[in-house]
Design a protein that fits this description.
Length: 162
Amino acid sequence: MAERKIETTSTMTLYEWASLAEDVQELVRRAKAAAENAYAPYSGFLVGAAVMLQDGQFYSANNQENVCFPVGVCAERILLGYTHANFPNVPPVKMAIVARRAAGENDYATVTPCGLCRQSISEYELKFRLPIDIYMYMPSGDVLHAHGIEQLLPLKFEDLNQ
């Protein structure tokens, strides 16, 4: 087989807080609040996620650790599982993710979805045939925006099988 190159590109947007739409600010606020209730006694890394469904409903969740690694669950997967279980025909359209270290009240960390969460987000985009806007809060107070998981996961399973 001859060599072929596969090129991928990602384009994301960095927003200052004041320039965000009100619904996105609300999404981030809900993700911050959810992070405060995370159960992370082992890593001390508190993650909150919030989602806005297509019908305008907001929901949030946080990471849940377990001493028996790796059975803890990420905030994003708990959130998507809950919303799909309860609203299986309503697509998620926007998601915010916030993380901080338990040591300091405002010790935020830049976080993107892990590999398992990226694939889970991809599954819901595939099911609903709609991209999910992902907003990631940064320690500076700015918010990084990815329009769809493809920006964070350029070679998804379904892409490789086409």
